């Protein structure tokens, strides 16, 4: 009998589990994961699956290519995504749904809300959402780049209680366990700091794009939203037996006691600055909730952005102050900044709305 204390979880599965040898999808390691997901659902725990593997799954269809170009990788992703979904679908006796996203979707507030609503609707109607980055169409500018961080963004969007990241090792070790025999597994982490990141150099696969560091990054995103995060060995079937018993088979990252509010978390960890608003080095404004920046505050504007885009507020010496949502485009702001008539500039009123972010600035729209 399961002893789950979660109501909703996100499970992240990587390419090495989907297509271990780049010879198409294999159910060898996926059977245990699928059974775990089925058991969770049977015990009242909703599940969202973030599944990498489209490129690895489609690789074998492009014979004789050892180092594919970007366009061929996209073609591999297009071919492999269908195979990957078919493989997952065969492993479940309940309906699944595919949701392909890019970072461009997630960092746009309107599309982010749309993704949230889609996930909630699928769960409400008993479907298993299977989410992947849309590798067939995304570009360097629009991609997350690894599904570890994507899974944390999805966990936040889904209001999950827990994020389970399947790796090729049991969790975070003091040293790379593939090299050092005296490496010790860290069972619990309550504070992700530089020391934790320094331990995250090893345990990567030649199939996936993420290593241990990206898993720590994902954990940091998730726990700041109050989401318990566990890095586990997805190749070991006993991992999922332990999870169902409420045990910790890997490394547990404990969530913040006081999580970031939803919009602040999105601005900090998902939204991406499209430009910068630069203030004087002696700027001493209090960047607090709903604090506006006026045309008098900003001395320069860099980058190209539109109304509603996220921008970084920094001093001329490079000191980062906060993130903000711009109420005007960079084109108009540059025009205002060039005006000598400050009365005209002031008539345009405030340039930005809610200043939200860096790590300790909690501001909402």
UniProtKB/TrEMBL annotation:
<comment type="function">
    <text>Catalyzes the transfer of a phosphate group to glutamate to form L-glutamate 5-phosphate.</text>
</comment>
<dbReference type="InterPro" id="IPR011529">
    <property type="entry name" value="Glu_5kinase"/>
</dbReference>
<keyword id="KW-0808">Transferase</keyword>
<dbReference type="InterPro" id="IPR019797">
    <property type="entry name" value="Glutamate_5-kinase_CS"/>
</dbReference>
<feature type="binding site">
    <location>
        <begin position="209"/>
        <end position="215"/>
    </location>
    <ligand>
        <name>ATP</name>
    </ligand>
</feature>
<feature type="binding site">
    <location>
        <position position="147"/>
    </location>
    <ligand>
        <name>substrate</name>
    </ligand>
</feature>
<keyword id="KW-0963">Cytoplasm</keyword>
<keyword id="KW-0028">Amino-acid biosynthesis</keyword>
<keyword id="KW-0547">Nucleotide-binding</keyword>
<dbReference type="InterPro" id="IPR001048">
    <property type="entry name" value="Asp/Glu/Uridylate_kinase"/>
</dbReference>
<dbReference type="InterPro" id="IPR015947">
    <property type="entry name" value="PUA-like_sf"/>
</dbReference>
<protein>
    <recommendedName>
        <fullName>Glutamate 5-kinase</fullName>
        <ecNumber>2.7.2.11</ecNumber>
    </recommendedName>
</protein>
<keyword id="KW-0641">Proline biosynthesis</keyword>
<dbReference type="InterPro" id="IPR036974">
    <property type="entry name" value="PUA_sf"/>
</dbReference>
<feature type="binding site">
    <location>
        <position position="135"/>
    </location>
    <ligand>
        <name>substrate</name>
    </ligand>
</feature>
<dbReference type="Pfam" id="PF00696">
    <property type="entry name" value="AA_kinase"/>
</dbReference>
<keyword id="KW-0418">Kinase</keyword>
<feature type="binding site">
    <location>
        <position position="52"/>
    </location>
    <ligand>
        <name>substrate</name>
    </ligand>
</feature>
<feature type="domain" description="Aspartate/glutamate/uridylate kinase">
    <location>
        <begin position="7"/>
        <end position="233"/>
    </location>
</feature>
<dbReference type="InterPro" id="IPR041739">
    <property type="entry name" value="G5K_ProB"/>
</dbReference>
<dbReference type="InterPro" id="IPR001057">
    <property type="entry name" value="Glu/AcGlu_kinase"/>
</dbReference>
<dbReference type="InterPro" id="IPR005715">
    <property type="entry name" value="Glu_5kinase/COase_Synthase"/>
</dbReference>
<feature type="binding site">
    <location>
        <begin position="167"/>
        <end position="168"/>
    </location>
    <ligand>
        <name>ATP</name>
    </ligand>
</feature>
<comment type="similarity">
    <text>Belongs to the glutamate 5-kinase family.</text>
</comment>
<feature type="binding site">
    <location>
        <position position="12"/>
    </location>
    <ligand>
        <name>ATP</name>
    </ligand>
</feature>
<comment type="pathway">
    <text>Amino-acid biosynthesis; L-proline biosynthesis; L-glutamate 5-semialdehyde from L-glutamate: step 1/2.</text>
</comment>
<keyword id="KW-0067">ATP-binding</keyword>
<dbReference type="InterPro" id="IPR036393">
    <property type="entry name" value="AceGlu_kinase-like_sf"/>
</dbReference>
């Amino acid at each position: 009998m399961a002893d789950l204390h979660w109501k909703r979880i996100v499970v992240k599965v990587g390419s090495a589990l989907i297509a271990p040898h780049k010879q198409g999808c294999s159910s060898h390691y996926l059977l245990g994961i699928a059974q775990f997901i089925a058991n969770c659902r049977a015990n009242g725990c909703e599940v969202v699956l973030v599944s990498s593997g489209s490129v690895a799954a489609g690789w074998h269809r492009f014979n004789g290519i050892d180092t594919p170009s970007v366009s061929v990788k996209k073609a591999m992703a297009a071919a492999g995504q269908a195979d990957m979904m078919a493989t997952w679908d065969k492993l479940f006796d309940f309906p699944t749904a595919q949701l392909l996203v890019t970072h461009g979707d997630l960092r746009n507030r309107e599309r982010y809300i749309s993704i949230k609503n889609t996930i909630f609707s699928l769960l409400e109607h008993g479907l298993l959402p299977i989410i992947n980055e849309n590798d067939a169409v995304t570009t360097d500018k629009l991609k997350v780049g690894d599904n570890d961080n994507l899974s944390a963004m999805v966990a936040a969007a889904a209001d999950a209680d827990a994020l389970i990241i399947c790796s090729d090792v049991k969790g975070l070790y003091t040293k790379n366990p593939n090299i050092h025999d005296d490496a010790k597994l860290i069972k619990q982490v309550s504070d992700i700091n530089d020391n934790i990141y320094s331990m995250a150099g090893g345990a990567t696969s030649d199939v996936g794009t993420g290593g241990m560091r990206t898993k720590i990054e994902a954990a940091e995103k998730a726990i700041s939203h109050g989401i318990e995060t566990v890095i586990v060995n997805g190749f070991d079937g006993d991992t999922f037996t332990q999870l169902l018993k409420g045990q910790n088979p890997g490394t547990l990252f404990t969530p913040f006691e006081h999580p970031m509010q939803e919009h602040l978390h999105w601005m900090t960890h998902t939204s991406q600055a499209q430009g910068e608003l630069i203030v004087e080095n002696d700027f001493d404004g209090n960047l607090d909730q709903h604090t506006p920046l006026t045309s008098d505050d900003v001395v320069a504007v860099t980058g190209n952005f539109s109304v509603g885009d996220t921008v970084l507020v920094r001093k001329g010496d490079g000191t980062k102050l906060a993130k903000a949502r711009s109420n005007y485009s960079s084109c108009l702001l540059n025009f205002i900044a060039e005006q000598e008539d400050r009365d005209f500039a002031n008539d345009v009123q405030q340039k930005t709305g809610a200043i939200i972010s860096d790590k300790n600035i909690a501001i909402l729209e």
